[in-house]
Write a structure and sequence with these properties.
245 residues, alpha/beta, Rossmann fold, 7-stranded mixed β-sheet, 7 strands, 20% strand, globular
Length: 245
């Protein structure tokens, strides 16, 4: 890692955006992979405090928009904190917070080259997510939202999503997962199911991988990157697709 990258990660930790620079580096690698940001426009959907928004801008994005609805359950003061962090990182001129849902967001003339959804896609419409695998109406609801996102993106744009899958050993046994006690498995879907919805909306070239604890480092991530290990632990995944050129 370059010294300026290490300093940037340390600053993100200092600002409360992550807990540890070393595990943050692993997390960024596992989610962003080799995604290009230089000169591109980025939409960070449901990105919370803006971790990936700031990383995209630091890696050269000419504009990075954090899309985060301030609803019940959202962190109070997110607008003020976002602005303060952007200023502290020297990224205020290339980052923006849009207080909206993906359904209500209006980008104007702006179109995106990268769309990110880290642990947020199931929250775009939770009732529809719960039933999308068995209800044509719920499935159509999600496909319509994904098509709306598709229309906001430039040809050749990248879509990157992470989430927990619907199936997990503990959930299947009716037990609380000690590794992820807050996850409600029935409010999630498998990566292949999401890929099928994205394909229906027009996205192509799906690439799916399973993810694990950032504390295990890159070697641990390679060893645990398989469906069985995921099912026995966190059931977390990453998938990437593109809007065809």
């Amino acid at each position: 890692m370059k010294s300026d990258d290490a300093a940037f990660l340390a600053k993100l930790v200092e600002l409360g955006l992550y807990s540890n620079p070393r595990t943050l580096a692993v997390y960024l690698d596992s989610f962003l992979g080799d995604t290009r940001f230089e000169g591109r426009t980025v939409l960070d959907i449901g990105g919370g405090a803006g971790l990936f928004t700031f990383v995209a801008a630091q890696r050269g994005a000419r504009k990075a928009v954090l899309l985060e609805p301030v609803l019940s359950g959202s962190t109070p003061g997110i607008t003020e904190r976002f602005r303060a962090r952007a200023e502290a990182l020297g990224l205020a001129d290339r980052t923006e917070l849009a207080v909206a849902t993906i359904q209500s967001y209006e980008p104007g003339e702006l179109r995106f080259d990268v769309a990110l959804s880290a642990a947020s896609i199931n929250h775009w419409d939770e009732p529809a997510c719960v039933d999308a695998h068995r209800s044509p109406e719920a499935r159509a609801t999600y496909v319509a939202v994904l098509r709306r996102l598709y229309d906001m993106m430039n040809p050749g744009a990248d879509l990157i999503v992470s989430d927990a899958a619907r199936r997990n050993l503990f959930g299947d046994l009716g037990l609380r997962n000690p590794l992820a006690p807050t996850i409600e498995w029935h409010k999630h879907q498998s990566p292949h199911f999401w890929a099928s919805l994205c394909a229906e909306a027009g996205f192509a070239r799906p690439s799916v991988s399973w993810t694990t604890y950032n504390t295990l480092g890159r070697l641990g991530a390679r060893i645990m990157n398989n469906p069985l290990a995921a099912y026995l632990t966190l059931s977390t995944f990453r998938y990437a697709m593109v809007r065809p050129a």
